[in-house]
Write a structure and sequence with these properties.
globular; EpsG family protein; mainly alpha; single chain; 13 helices
Length: 312
C-alpha cells in the first residue's frame, strides 16, 4: 500500500506530507508542548512553517536532480516521520532555518560531481554554510564538508582550495557592513562563542539521549547496508554517498556540541539520514519485506511519540 503511494513521485505525495506536517507542527506547539503565542509570534511561527515546507521540496529536489535515489518519494516520507520522532525540533526556529540553509549548501556540494562551474558551486556552498552558522555557531563545521567535496572531486586544481576563503571573506564583509548599519557591531563576537559543556541531566531524558542514540545506530546500520548494496556502482555515486554519510557525522557532532534543553538541532541530520534509509529500502528486492519495513517506518515514529508523551 505504502509502496503504491510513495513508490512514485506524484503531487499527491507532497500533498499528504505537507498536510500532515501542517497539522503536526501546530499540534507540537499548542498541544504537545502547550505553547502560547501572540499575534506577532504566530506570524513568525507560520513563516518558519513555510520554510519547513520549502525544505521538503529541497530534499526532493536534491535527491532527484542528482539521481541519488530512484523515482520515489520515500525521502520526504522519512523526513516527515523523523519530525514525529523528534517533535521538539519543530519548536526550535533556529534549527529549521539552519537546516534550510544547510540544504542549500548540500545541494551545491553534491552537484560538484558534474565538474561544471565547480568554483561557483564551492563559493555558493561556503556562503550557505556560513549563513546557516548565523543560527547555530557550530554549524560552521560543515565547511569541512565543502573541503571534503573539493578533495573528492577537484583536488588537483589549487584554486578550488582558495575559493572557500573568498566566500568566508565575502560573507564577513557583508555581515560586518550590515551589523555596523544596524548598530550591532559585537554580534559576531558574541554569537561565535563555540561553547561546549556536558550536561549530565541532558542524557537522562528520553527525548534527548535515547532517541538520538537509537537514531544514530539505525541510520549507521542502514547506511552500512546501503554501501554494501552499492557494490560496483560508479565512482561518482560512491563519493556522493560518502559525502552524505560524512554530513550525517558532522550533524551528530553539532548536536553533541549544542547540548541544551532549549536547542534541538537534530533536524540538520535529517537529509543524510533519509537518503541512507531510502537507499537501503531501494536495495530490498522482495516487495513484501520492503512493505513491512515501510509500515514499520510509520508505526515506530508514532510509537516513539506516544511513549514520549506518556513519560512526560
Amino acid at each position: 500500500m505504502i509502496s503504491l503511494i510513495f513508490g512514485k513521485t506524484k503531487p499527491i505525495n507532497f500533498i499528504i506530507v505537507l498536510t500532515f506536517l501542517f497539522f503536526f507542527y501546530w499540534f507540537v506547539h499548542f498541544q504537545l508542548f502547550d505553547r502560547g503565542y501572540g499575534t506577532g509570534e504566530l506570524w513568525h511561527k507560520a513563516l518558519i512553517l513555510g520554510v519547513l515546507f520549502f525544505s521538503i521540496f529541497l530534499v526532493n529536489f536534491i535527491v532527484k536532480r542528482n539521481k541519488i535515489t530512484r523515482n520515489n518519494s520515500f525521502s520526504i516520507l522519512f523526513y516527515a516521520m523523523l519530525a514525529v520522532v523528534f517533535p521538539e525540533t519543530l519548536l526550535d526556529s533556529n534549527a529549521i532555518l539552519c537546516s534550510f540553509f544547510l540544504l542549500l549548501a548540500t545541494r551545491r556540494i553534491i552537484s560538484m560531481r558534474s565538474s561544471k562551474d565547480t568554483k561557483f558551486k564551492i563559493f555558493d556552498a561556503t556562503i550557505w554554510v556560513l549563513v546557516s552558522s548565523l543560527f547555530y555557531d557550530w554549524a560552521i563545521l560543515y565547511l569541512i564538508l565543502v573541503f571534503a567535496a573539493i578533495f573528492f572531486y577537484q583536488a588537483n586544481d589549487i584554486r578550488n582550495w582558495l575559493v572557500p576563503f573568498a566566500g568566508i571573506f565575502t560573507v564577513y564583509m557583508i555581515a560586518k557592513s550590515i551589523l555596523i548599519l544596524a548598530n550591532q557591531k559585537q554580534f559576531l563576537v558574541t554569537h561565535y562563542q563555540f561553547n561546549f559543556s556536558v550536561d549530565v541531566a541532558y542524557f537522562t531524558y528520553w527525548g534527548h539521549s535515547t532517541k538520538l542514540i537509537l537514531f544514530a545506530v539505525i541510520t549507521f546500520l542502514t547506511g552500512l547496508l546501503a554501501f554494501v548494496k552499492l557494490g560496483k556502482a560508479g565512482f561518482g555515486r560512491v563519493v556522493t554517498m560518502r559525502l552524505i554519510a560524512f554530513s550525517f557525522v558532522i550533524g551528530l557532532l553539532v548536536n553533541i556540541l549544542k547540548l541544551s534543553d532549549n536547542v534541538y538541532p537534530v533536524i540538520i541530520t535529517f537529509l543524510p539520514a533519509v537518503i541512507l534509509m531510502t537507499k537501503y529500502i531501494e536495495s530490498i528486492r522482495r516487495a513484501r519485506i520492503r512493505e513491512i519495513l515501510l509500515i514499520a517506518s510509520i508505526i515506530i515514529p508514532f510509537a516513539v511519540l506516544l511513549t514520549g508523551m506518556a513519560i512526560q
